[in-house]
Write a structure and sequence with these properties.
With about 130 residues, this protein is mainly alpha-helical. It is built from six helices and no strands.
């Protein structure tokens, strides 16, 4: 799930980087209004959960709080390497839920996010082949 999570985040951020700041921040009436708002929420929720795992709780104003107004900074923070931790399924499920919304929002900009199914994760076929051997 961690590999899938990283793969999809990298793909969606690459697509979002092609959008103008205005397109990313346009209110599309999603849960967190815009593509940018949804990306911010995902990072915020990850930090909340990671804080719960490590005992270093993040203080927030709300689940729609904007962490970074600048897309480049938001993208850098999404890619940050974190210390080893024990993840729970909810963390990945939450990401999948909102990435589903993002793919809809991205489609509304006229771009195709492509295949998002877990079974198409690059490298997954080599793992399956190794297990059969």
């Amino acid at each position: 799930m961690a590999a899938y999570n990283r793969w999809m985040n990298e793909r969606l951020y690459a697509l979002c980087a092609e959008l103008s700041d205005e397109e990313r921040k346009r209110d599309l009436r999603a849960f967190f209004r815009s593509i940018h708002g949804t990306l911010n929420h995902l990072l915020l929720a990850d930090r909340l959960w990671l804080g719960r795992f490590t005992g270093e709780l993040l203080k927030i104003q709300g689940l729609a709080q904007e962490l970074y107004a600048d897309f480049a900074e938001l993208r850098r923070e999404r890619a940050r390497t974190l210390p080893l931790w024990t993840a729970v399924t909810h963390l990945f499920n939450h990401q999948t839920h909102h990435r589903g919304q993002l793919t809809t929002l991205i489609k509304q900009t006229g771009r195709d996010p492509g295949i998002t199914d877990l079974i198409w994760l690059p490298g997954l076929e080599s793992v399956s082949e190794a297990r059969r051997a």
